[in-house]
Amino acid sequence: KGNGMIGDIYSMGLALQVLEATRKFYAPRNWDCAQAFSVVYAHDYQHPMAIAQVLPALVGKSYLDAAGLDCAATKMSPSRQLPLSPRQGTHTSIQVHYSITNKLQGKHFHYSTSVTVPSGSTLLQVMEVAAEENPQTFSFQTEQTSWGTYVTSIHGLAASTDDRTYWQFLSAGNALEEGVGTYKPQDGEHIQAVFTTY
Questions:
Q1: Residue 150, annotated ligand binder?
Q2: pLDDT tens profile 104-120
Q3: 176 belongs to an annotated ligand binding site
Q4: Closest CA to 43 of 193, 182, 195, 186
Q5: Is 82 among the domain residues?
Q6: What is the pTM assigned to this prediction?
Q7: Domain with 153 in it: what CATH number?
Q8: How do residues 107-159 score in pLDDT, each as one tens digit?
Q9: Which of 66, 71, 155, 193 is the most exposed place for a label (fewest CB within 10 A)?
């Protein structure tokens, strides 16, 4: 993407490893990695899996280098500290507009609501408040994965690998680059959960 993002924030670690490891194959055009690395430096990684994939790239290595490591000869050096993420505004609470849409399977539906949550809340917390206020409409189910919380069902409509369906989360029409357990909506933001296929 034009802002340096490769796929989404979770795919960045492996993408940077691959691009660094295969740099010589880009000749005569060099890969300018500065913009991609600036995306990584600016992000506050929370999931251990994402951290494990991005750390090798930050030290100029890839998983391929692990086979040749001499652990006995390795000396630990202080790591470069990533910049702290900016504070999430000064409001004590924010309002988030949240909608769920299914135009794919069974009886189609579209519901919207606005919820007030503490500033810095995750999208998962927004969904929990919406479900508390209107469980008939905004109930949902999740499962925990190594990448964090995965939404499996909203309004009784479950994602299915057989049907190749899932719940996609969008902001301003663009897919979120983080999962519901880490993405923090801004005040006035409209988050859409759309039942879709891949």
A1: yes
A2: 999 999 999 999 999 99
A3: yes
A4: 182
A5: no
A6: 0.62
A7: 2.170.130.30
A8: 999 999 999 999 999 999 999 999 999 999 999 999 988 778 999 999 999 99
A9: 71
